[in-house]
Amino acid sequence: MSLYFRYLNIQLKSQLQYRASFLLLSIGQFFIPFMVFGGLYFMFERFGQLEGWSFFEVTLCFAVIHLSFSLSECFARGFDAFSSLVASGDFDRLLVRPRGTVVQVLGSKFEFTRIGRLLQSTIVLIWSIANLPQVWSFPKAITLFFMVFNGVMIFTGIFILAATFCFWTIQAIEIANVFTDGGREMAQYPLTIYEKWVTRFFTFIVPFGCVTYLPLMYLLDKEEGSWVTGMLVPFGGLLFLLPCLLVWRIGVRHYRSTGS
Amino acid sequence: MEKGIIQLTGIGKSFKVAERTAGLRQAAKALFVRKHRIVEALKDISFTVNEGEIVGYIGPNGAGKSTTIKVMSGILVPDGGTCSIMGYTPWKERTDYVRHIGVVFGQRSQLWWDVPVIDSFELLRDIYRIPDEMYRENLAVLTEMLALADLLGVPVRQLSLGQRMRCEIAASLLHSPKILFLDEPTIGLDAVSKLAVRSFIRRINQERGVTVILTTHDMSDIEALADRILMIGKGTLLYDGSLEELRSRFGTGRTITADYREYVGEPVDIPGATRLQWSTERAVYSFDTESVVLADVIAQLSGSVELLDISVDSKDIDEMIVQLYEEHQI
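^ Those are the sequences you sent over. The predicted structure of the assembly is below.
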């Protein structure tokens, strides 16, 4: 873990070498989700509510997903950009160092410009919470933290899966974006608005539902239930990460036997 | 015989390579049906390297040099055979094993591009968990030996290739490895940097007893450094021996160039030697030391002409290598 922060440190130093581009990219990242958010705002302006969900309830959902996404794009970017590491052969370099591959790949790249997106999501989060007094309690704050944390785990898991495919294809495969970008777009709304199979898919296969919809029911007092389930359900995200890491190991083993 | 620090026995490795044919139609077809070809990169490679040796590992492009280095450094798992390096099987105990080796890939950097060299070194200290004392000591020694003092504060991207290579080599030695793998360390370097790198490799080998495995296409590297040559071609080991042996095997041919005071007589014939050039002031002969003695050649020449200068050249190592390649048809 301390090594991870060492990597973080050196990468931050590197990125700050290019100050102008860092600032511009960050500002760009700040405005990108604004478009999406604008769409959300005008939709509510027109329809007032979405299947019983008020504007601020949906923006809370939006903020959780976008926070998770920007955090994982910043801190797990190494896996997201993994194809270049394989294509350039630099992955060999990681293998001759006496450390695990996961921490080294994570440390190979950080995308600090995501701070723009992070800032935007944080503003939306604060604005939502300020307008949702039923969320103001300590256990709910903790739950909210768990939601974001596990959301990061899910996105990281998907990045790792996508990266693993690079061992076979060398190039990054776009299909993974169906789950990262697509998953983000889907999960920024409460999952009840979709078809049943979509909801099931995003609850049991790629468990975005565990970090948004299900705990939100507890957070917003939409469903009677103990706070324990509300707090524990988000950990479905962490559970999702485990098989991803397993698949990663298989990928590394494949790489080391084929060298491609 | 003493047990070597590196022992490879019967290492084999084959790759499945997708066949590619030219043309758009073929490429489209390849999307669905792919023909594979098995390429045997290594066939039954066995050798032993003793502690403190400098071994030059040579062979034409695609002969299997890099594959061998990858197997020995724990990156690749071979299909068969055993490999024991310092008692470890590289691909099985990767993290424990790589602590004891240093690897320099001449064409790829291990330093972080945008930050000063010293930052890279410090990160490597943390990656290898080098004790502070040892790190400081090694850094001081390497800085002195490779004249890095002025480079440590400079971002890697601003270094010249020669400067960068010195830093790369220092980076691979910070954790005091027992074995150093150098994959084309002098590629693209100018003469001065090349010499600096070479003399440094000699020095750490002598002063610290580091065993060095070196791949290169530059035969002058081999000449300057290697006690021993391993030559690989088409995945098989073709030659294992000292440079002197190689010389005595192929290097019995000599050319002699003689300059003399103007001589207008008939060209001189020397039994056992072939006349390559003849003019009124200079002649060049080639001969084989196995069939005729140098002293006789000179004696016969000086009997006819008034010698001013004479020079004898043996076949250079590049030619010997080419001859060896030809002999094995690779």
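The CA atoms of residues 51 and 307 of chain B lie 49 Å apart. The mean pLDDT of chain B is 88.

Shout if you want it in another format.
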